[in-house]
Amino acid sequence: MGSSPWPQGTRSRSLKRIWPWLALLGVLGMVRWSKGAGFADGYALLTRPFWPGSAQKQWIQAAQQQDDATRLQLLEVDNARLRGLLSLDRQGGSTAISAAVISRTPEGWWQQIVLGKGVLDGIKQGDAVIGPGGLIGRVQSATPATSLVRLLTAPGSRVGVWVPRTRQHALLVGMGTARPELKFIDKDVKVRPGDLVSTSPASTLLPANLPVAVVQSLNSRAVPAPTALVQLIAPPDAIDWVQVSRR
Amino acid sequence: MARLHSQPICVASGLLVPLISLAAPSWLSLGGVLPSWAVLWLLPWALVDGPVSGVIAGAAMGLVLDGLSVGDASQVPALMLLGWWWGRLGRRGRPIQRSLNLGLLAWIGTMLLGLSLWAQLLVQGVNAPLAQAFALHTCLAQGLMTGLMAPMIGSWQLLIWRRRTPA
User: Fold this and answer.
1) Most CB atoms closer than 10 Å: which of A93, A189, A205, B164?
2) pTM, whole model, 2 decimals?
3) Looking at CA atoms only, how far is residue B106 from chain A in angstroms?
């Protein structure tokens, strides 16, 4: 065996000298592999007092809302165009009239509200009346300055509705109680409590896809077809202002 | 003094009925049901002014209230019948003015009015069990409220109107 040109003591001293540099390289390799974790977190921790304040956050949120509103407007225009192609009634989102409730009888023989706007403001018989959250009734008659609205809960009130989840049509029948009855047309009903009830997307009498109620309970044994009790989304006994959607 | 129907101020008092019906003060309701303001006004009117005036007043009041209400059920037949009946009661025997009598007459009248509306709803096809429960609740609550308020309001009206039309 030949002897090494380097003495043993010199090699071990060299390893000891470069060992910290090798460790540093290893750590930096970990930083590279983790995409800067540690560095970025440390930077965030150090610069937290200098982050953008609430004013800038509100600016960003306002911009986000503006973006959402613009997108909604574009979608409504697109939707109206498609509904026009299908020869369906156009949604009246832009033709809604705000009206104050000047008389309210949500219980008793005649369940109705009277609005402080009428024919002079463009309201006609049959217009949909929308409270915060959804449909509450339809205009039964209108004078020059007032409108008489029949609530969905009124006995004898009948409105065609739609359950979006199961894509089934039904008739919402008022019975005087706070919870109207949903009469289905099909016998095979897949509706369950909690399902949303809305106006039909193909409705020509009411604005399409308007929330109306939530299914509370289902009576699948009713004849000739199942029925359900629903809770209205907009309670008429606590509404001071409504929107009238002109047809 | 002239009869009630020929005194404009007495006739004008009938305007209060549709106005109060529209105002619908919720603090006077029982289970959300208000008293029958038409019955409260018509009872003393018919007792003082007789059956013919009672029938006409009942028809007029019913027509106005029907115009202010949604739905197809009418109050006119029941109010005309009550106007005639109370008018005949007022013409016979001693004048009715005791609180119990007024309350009882108002309760019977409101129940008759409620039953007539209930019958009309049945004819219109509103016959689900829940609708029947609603009608019964409304009948009873309205009858009770009207019967309780009649001695207070009715006796006061009788006092004023009888002073204006001495026999």
Assistant:
1) A189
2) 0.74
3) 18
**ipTM given for this complex:** 0.86
Q: Give Cα separations from A35 to A25, A28, B43 (angstroms).
A: 15, 11, 89
Residue type, position A111, single letter: Q
pLDDT tens string A7-23: 667 777 777 888 888 88
In whole angstroms, give the CA distance from residue A69 to residue B74.
48
Q: What is the CATH number of the domain that holds B110?
A: 1.10.1760
Partner-chain contact A176 B72, CB within 8 Å: no
Give the count of domains, chain B: 1
Closest residue in A to B26 (Cα–Cα): A105
What chain A holds in terms of domains, given with CATH numbers, is 8-48 (no CATH), 94-247 (2.40.10.340)
CA dihedral for A190, A195, A197, A203, sign (positive or negative): negative
B114 to each of B39, B51, B87, B137, B153, how far by Cα in Å? 11, 21, 20, 10, 20
Beta-carbon separation of B70 and A154 below 8 A: yes
- Are B131 and A175 inside 8 Å of each other by CB? yes
Domain with B39, as residue range(s), is 4-164
Chain A CB contacts of B131 below 8 Å: 155, 175-177
